[in-house]
TrEMBL record:
<comment type="similarity">
    <text>Belongs to the ABC transporter superfamily.</text>
</comment>
<dbReference type="InterPro" id="IPR050153">
    <property type="entry name" value="Metal_Ion_Import_ABC"/>
</dbReference>
<keyword id="KW-0067">ATP-binding</keyword>
<dbReference type="GO" id="GO:0016887">
    <property type="term" value="F:ATP hydrolysis activity"/>
</dbReference>
<dbReference type="GO" id="GO:0005524">
    <property type="term" value="F:ATP binding"/>
</dbReference>
<feature type="domain" description="ABC transporter">
    <location>
        <begin position="6"/>
        <end position="237"/>
    </location>
</feature>
<dbReference type="InterPro" id="IPR017871">
    <property type="entry name" value="ABC_transporter-like_CS"/>
</dbReference>
<dbReference type="InterPro" id="IPR003439">
    <property type="entry name" value="ABC_transporter-like_ATP-bd"/>
</dbReference>
<dbReference type="InterPro" id="IPR003593">
    <property type="entry name" value="AAA+_ATPase"/>
</dbReference>
<protein>
    <submittedName>
        <fullName>ABC transporter related protein</fullName>
    </submittedName>
</protein>
<keyword id="KW-0813">Transport</keyword>
<keyword id="KW-0547">Nucleotide-binding</keyword>
<dbReference type="Pfam" id="PF00005">
    <property type="entry name" value="ABC_tran"/>
</dbReference>
<dbReference type="InterPro" id="IPR027417">
    <property type="entry name" value="P-loop_NTPase"/>
</dbReference>
Length: 254
């Protein structure tokens, strides 16, 4: 699927009269894993929340040519772990079942099919044996897999993940990345905020490079360059040689 699925036109978001992001425009094809990278404070999470209708903005956003309100059921969101109250007393299985709620009429109730879909999502993420555990009892990686399972249970076409690999173990990161690749092979579109530049080429097909304004968007090979990274990170992107390929990391300014 190569046609444009996500279109953002001239998006600007203000926080207390200051511009968090300014005049951002890009289009992204479907069936791809799209990485959003940039320095701290670049507006990556703001961009994602605005696209999802969770922040006010100026401009236009469309998915398959429709607004987020028209296509809400088809868009799943995995927020940052730091934004979630892990002390809330809820079981793992109930968190995953939340992914089915928007498919249930207000007068209906959770069906056997809904429970089967949730159980399948738990199995895919390796979390089925934790169904009866409190969400707050899990490790960071396990919690992230549960919230991915909730998104899977929604049966969406577009997945938004905000920093899914922060503060988790390597096993969980590998499981999550494997699931994202499977979703891509199924024709789904993944929109992922990411901070580890060393894994960009390994993880993503398309990139959005942001620092309040759009630096560049497009295929990884066109965006993941020393010149553009230095422009985005203000000279904090270092080029590391290795095996004939260039890789990048962020270093503290001198």
């Amino acid at each position: 699927m190569n046609d444009s699925v996500i279109d953002v036109n001239h998006m600007t978001v203000h926080y207390h009269r200051n511009k968090a992001i300014e005049d951002v425009t890009f289009s992204m094809p479907g069936g791809q894993i799209i990485g959003v990278i940039g320095p701290n404070g670049a507006g990556k999470s703001t961009l994602m929340k605005a696209m999802l209708g969770l922040e006010k903005y100026k401009g236009q956003v469309s998915f398959f040519g429709q607004s987020i309100q028209q296509i809400r059921k088809e868009v799943a969101y995995v927020p940052q772990r730091s934004s979630i109250d892990w002390d809330f007393p809820v079981l793992v299985r109930d968190v995953v079942l939340m992914g089915r709620y928007m498919h249930i009429p207000w007068y209906g109730k959770v069906s056997k099919e809904d429970r089967n879909i949730a159980q399948e999502a738990l199995m895919k993420t390796g979390m089925a044996s934790f169904s009866d555990r409190q969400i707050g009892e899990l490790s960071g990686g396990q919690q992230q897999r549960v919230f991915l399972a909730r998104a899977l249970a929604q049966k969406a076409d577009i997945f938004f993940l905000d920093e899914p690999f922060v503060g988790i173990d390597m096993q969980s990161e590998e499981i999550i990345m494997s699931i994202l690749r499977q979703l891509k092979s199924d024709g789904k579109t993944l929109f992922v905020i990411h901070h580890d530049l060393s894994k960009v080429e390994q993880y993503f097909d398309q990139l959005i490079l942001l620092n309040r304004q759009l630096i560049r968007s497009g295929p990884v090979k066109d965006v993941y360059t020393p010149e553009l990274l230095k422009k985005a990170y203000g000279g904090q992107a270092a080029v590391l040689p290795g095996n004939g390929n260039e890789s990048f990391m962020v270093v503290s300014p001198s």
